Request: fold
Amino acid sequence: MKKFLLHAALAGFLLATGPAFAQPPGPRPGGEGMLEQQIAKLHDALNLTPAQDAPWQGVAATMRDNEHELRTLMMDRQGKMDGMNALDSLKAASEMADAHAAAQKKMVEAFGKLYAALSPDQKRIADDFFREQRRQMGMGGGRPPR
Reply:
């Protein structure tokens, strides 16, 4: 049961925040984690203008803040898993789900500001980027037939 709840919590975490976090907790190799690689990859792909830098910085900061908050919460929960009863485990999973939802709302707000400032070509690049991320996570999201 504990393994199931841990896997369920981890799966929810990954679904809510994206593949950038699909790495074990702890020190990141070379000081750069998957999140920083994803941030750099999206930034480079979008070829942002100086006028788009402020909303981009908001997106990057939100991604980093969300990762930190969710990773901290997950690590705290993992440290307590052995002492949890079934009800505690369900409550912990519910708290993680609430935290994921709050993180997603923050990301929608920050990314919405950037998306509004993107050109049509940049929006297509962003759409394709996120579609590919969903596909890599096994969530589908392929381009609809034309």
